[in-house]
Amino acid sequence: MQANMIEIFSSVQGEGRYVGCRQLFVRFEGCNLQCRYCDTENAPGTHLMCNVEITPGARRFREIMNPVEGHELAAYINEFLQAVPHQAVSFTGGEPLLHTGLLRELLPLIGCKRFLETNGTLPDKLAEVLPWIDIISMDIKLPQATGREMWPEHERFLRLAVEAEKDVYAKLVVPGDLVEADFDRAVEVIASVEPSVLLILQPVTPMNGVPGAEPWYMLELQQRALAKLPDVRVIPQTHRMMNQL
Ligand code: SF4
Predict the structure, then answer these.
(1) In this prediction, what percent of the chain has a pLDDT beyond 70?
(2) Is the model more confident about 109 or about 39?
(3) Ligand 1 binding pocket includes 210 (Cβ within 6 Å)
(4) Which of 160, 161, 172, 200 has the fewest CB atoms lying closer than 10 Å?
(5) Is the pLDDT of residue 39 over 90?
(6) How far, in Å, is the centroid of ligand 1 from the Cα of 134?
(7) Which domains occur in the chain, in start order?
(8) CA distance readout (Å), 47 to 36, 54, 77, 95
(9) Residue 30 in contact with ligand 1 by CB distance below 6 A
């Protein structure tokens, strides 16, 4: 199987539970959503070439032709892992679960923890690769971000991950103009599946006219979520503060 890739590089994880850990990022082209704050160029077919870092962390890249085969991708990844120990390989995008055929070939070949960064809306696709995934960072997408309600999809997705006893946490991007009823619904979805699941509240990085959330407001929302969930953390996109990729 093959897929169009955007980039492969080594950096620190900037978001969520594993912030600061050295990870290898493998970014797929294409997404099933169009979030209003998206910072990735995702339209299918827009990347003729994939940027591959020359040595891990050097931030100098060479280009390889898309699409890339699964075994070819495995070779690039394992070369990075031999050069530098990484906490995990982060499969990101776009939405990596649009490429489950390739992932089923690739994941068993990776000699490191496999970290899935996903929008959490494709439970059937998750089921296809779940045995080979170690860590799941699952977004909860608010209707105001995507223009669609996806509560049942999110609930099924989270339930699958919890029942498979995966290291899973949920991440919710908070804009300044948050619809609070939807925030409460997101918290309820997590609480109804498994209240011990960590919830990360990530203040949006303002872009495309989406307003940022005030610091006091993040605390208010954390307090509101803590009424239903025991572990709620406020963590911004720290890689931007550190000027990391
Ligand atoms: S799910 Fe992620 S990659 Fe897809 S549109 Fe939303 S922010 Fe962008």
Answers:
(1) 100
(2) 109
(3) no
(4) 160
(5) no
(6) 21
(7) 2-241 (3.20.20.70)
(8) 21, 19, 19, 15
(9) no
